[in-house]
Amino acid sequence: MSKAVTTKPSVSYLLNRLLAGPTPVLRHARRRSIQTIAFEEIKSSPDKPHQFTAFILHGLLGSARNWRSFSRSLLSSLAPAAQWRMVLVDLRNHGKSAEIQGLLPPHDLENAAKDLANLVKSEGWDWPDVVVGHSMGGKVALQFAQSCANGHYGDSVSLPKQLWVLDSVPGKVIQENSDGEVEKVLQTLQSLPSTIPSRKWLVDHMMKLGFSKSLSEWIGSNLKKSGEQETWSFNLDGAVQMFNSYREMEYWPLLEHTPKGMEISIVRAEKSDRWDPEVIQQLEHLATKRANETEGKVSVHVLPNAGHWVHADNPKGLLEILAPKIASVV
Question: Which of 77, 132, 179, 324 is deepest in the core (most CB within 10 A)?
Answer without folding.
Answer: 132
